[in-house]
Amino acid sequence: MKILAINPGSTSTKIAVYENEKRLFVKTFYHSIETLSPFPTINSQYEFRKELILAELKKEDVLFLFDAVVGRGGLLKPIPSGVYEVNETMLKDLRNASMQHASNLGGLLAEDISRSIPGCKAYIADPVVVDELEDVARISGLPMLPRVSIFHALNHKAVGRKYARSINKNYEKMNLVIAHLGGGISVAAHRCGRVIDVNNALNGSGPFSPERAGTLSARALAELCFSGKYSLQEIDKMICGKGGVMAHLGTTDMPAVIKKINDGDANAELIVDAMIYTVAKEIGSMCVSLRGNVDAIILTGGIAYNSYCVDRLIGQIDFLAPIHIFPGEDEMEALAFNALEALQGNIVCKVYN
Fold first, then answer.
1. CATH: 1.10.472.10, 3.30.420.40, 3.40.190.150, 3.55.40.10. Which one for 2-131+331-343?
2. What digits encode the pLDDT tens for the residues 176-205?
3. For this UniProt entry, which residues form the secretion signal (predicted)?
4. What is the largest CA-CA distance in the chain?
């Protein structure tokens, strides 16, 4: 089985080709601010990204060989975890998504490219809107503002399964707390294969991160919104994009920040330690969601490569449960393996409606 995986990011487009579980090649196209500036919306970048992908596939002479094309899932309606074959309802919702995000292009590109290949399927897998919350976890203090599940579902699920396999256990029979530590940070309680609670890693709850503000004082934020100084778009950017470490230190480059700390920058040290502190508290709260019955805590994402951050975090949470590190995020492998399982009939594709 040959599979093409497509992962559109805010400033990059990554593709990878797999033959069964073997990766044949991977290519990342980086898009500068200048390159993307002519496009007023994410959707308007569609043809630009598509042509880059097709040109690379033609160069590698693999364009018409695929059994499936799988794209990163976008900001669809809340859905359970799984693999979904792209259908017309999904395409419509991706084109008209309530929020602009590059991941919305994943399913659109997968369907478009697969259409020209006889017998080729188009899938998405574990999009960021995976919703398995328990009812009690949905309730907030205002009925019109329920808690929402938006998190790094693809990497969470892949890492949970990878850890379970490494100890010859079944992910669906384990209780895990998984913390994805990247530009955004999501911490989730996984109970027997379902994410029963998680912070909204996109729209502002939980830990602050290199680029996101996390939980804020509701009254203070309301006053900021009505101060007349900022537009809704500017407030959005403060919450996601220009919040967190970026707001304090003017950068999201964590290795550069750690270098500042090593050079004696006390303010940089305080900000990073504060970020880690908020992550530790969130991990603790998810242990409570699992009533203390936690088989393991897993740290993943790009920041999990950073020994300064990992060591300080472990120092605050090591009494809670055994801790395991799976640094980085191989979303391309996760996408491809999900598609392979669907092609081989090992899992049943779900229907988006």
1. 3.30.420.40
2. 999 999 999 999 999 999 999 999 998 889
3. none
4. 60
